[in-house]
Design brief:
mainly beta, 4 helices, 11-stranded antiparallel beta sheet
Amino acid sequence: SLADRASGRPRGITILDADGDGRQEARLQTAAMSVLVDPAEGGALTEWCLTGPRVNLLDTLSRTPEPYHEKLKAASVAARVGAGGVPASIHDILGVKEPNLARHLIYDDQRRSAFLDYGLQEPPRLEELVRSTWGERRLWSLEPFEWDAAPSRRAGQSASGAEIAMVRRLPSGRIRKVVRVAADRPVLECVYEVDGVTAPVVGLEFNVSLRDERYLSAAGEQPRAARFDIQEPGLGVSLVLELDPPGTLVHFPIETVSESEEGLERTYQGLALLCFWSPAPSGRGARGGRWTGRLRWTVQTPRRR
């Protein structure tokens, strides 16, 4: 916030290389929020910062192998074998803060960002999503996009807000993503269009860093979901997600096995949200026809006195 104020960063759309990878990203900025869109990274949102509460809603962490994970795996085997055939306690071999911790060693095959898109032959099972073992079901994912129309280096904000569009062209058609931010209220809209692309199931993924006590312990699935809310009272932030059309919504906590001074423990890193649709096989479907899905995020924060 201080840097923006000092540099006079304009509201609207700014094209820049924000992450230093030699490729262009787009920053959509309003008085309420700043959103970073990366076409090279599958057209994903890699940053979503709220000005008032000063929080990055996409401050999540992908799960990757760590050296101390190997110690946990070895200790699990040793605990099962034990000395003289007598099973030992893993707590005696390696400091861990809960039993069966090794089963929570789950690794992601991509960055846990937002507005990730997938085409699938059939919906993945809940357990596959939780354990990140559904990669083979994907027809596509995380392919680079390009700007639908070449944006200027710095574009002003209109009365309705700011908008950026990206497209990925395929031999049979194209996939288009549109990201919009409202000018006068904290609203983010993500529009996904498939045209001439065959996909029995279409999926979109978002990972947010809010900690909602209702979703910390178990995964959940809501068929025909049209609305979903996430709240973190400590930050004073709540999100309302609206799906158009309604779809199947799956949520589960993203947890890493981390090392602390007291030993190994599970650490909450964010909440994964995946939305799936089965487009109709008609001209409006995603089986060689055209289909559009919209996700509208509304941010609610208390007013400062």
